Amino acid sequence: MVVILIGVAGAGKTTIGRALAHQHGWRFVDGDDYHAPAAITKMRAGIALTDADRAPWLASLHAIAAAVLDRREHVAIACSALKERYRDALRGALHPVRFVYLKADEATLRGRLEGRGGHFFSPALLTSQLVDFEEPADALTIDATRPQEEIVNAIGHELGLSAGS
Q: Please, which residues have CB within 8 angstroms of residue 147's CB and are 6 or more apart in sequence?
C-alpha cells in the first residue's frame, strides 16, 4: 500500500508520515527530499513553484511508489500534492494508493511554519499554497490539529491497518 499524506506546508505531513511508517514498519519518503536544487532555491527565496518545476518532482515520487508496489511493500509519502492533477500524476495507474489530507486552519499552519527552523520552505509561500490547494474529493480528510497519536491511529483505523502491517 502507498499512503500519500497531502496538504499545504505546516499541515504535519512529514511528522505524521514518519509516525505512521514507524507504527506499521513501513518505509517513509519525504517528498521534500526529491525537489530539484533549483526548486529549493526558489522556495527558499519565497518564489512559488510552477507546474513545470513540479513535474519532475512528481514523476520521481510516482516512480518511488511504483517501485514499492512492485516489491509488494508499503510506504508513507509526504507530498503537498496541491492540485488534483498533481495527485493524478502521483497515482497514475497504481493501486492501491490512498491519499490522506491533513487539514488545518491558516493560523495553525502559519504558527507551525514560523516556529520551524532549518527548512527551505519560506513561510511567505503559505498564502500561495492555500490559494492553489484543491481540496481532494477522494482522500481521507483528517483534522491536522489533533494530537499526533490520534491522527496516526485514525489513519490506521480508517485504512484498515493493524500495527506492524
A: none
Contacts of 106 by beta carbon, 8 Å cutoff, 6+ apart: 126, 130
| Residue 23 maps to a domain | yes
pLDDT in tens, 81-113: 999 999 999 999 998 899 999 999 999 998 888
Is residue 101 within 8 A of residue 140, CB to CB? The reply is yes
pLDDT digits (tens, 9 = 90+) for 64-73: 999 999 999 9
Q: Is residue 84 part of a domain?
A: yes
Evaluate whether residue 164 is within a structural domain: no
In this prediction, the residues of the chain whose per-residue pLDDT falls under 50 are: none
Q: Residues 24, 74: contact at Cβ < 8 Å?
A: yes
Assigned C-alpha cell, 165: 502491517
pTM recorded for the entire structure: 0.90
**In the numeric block, which cell numbers belong to residue 111?**
504558527
CATH of the domain at 63: 3.40.50.300
Indicate whether 115 belongs to any domain: yes
Phi/psi of residue 128, nearest 5 degrees: -65, -35
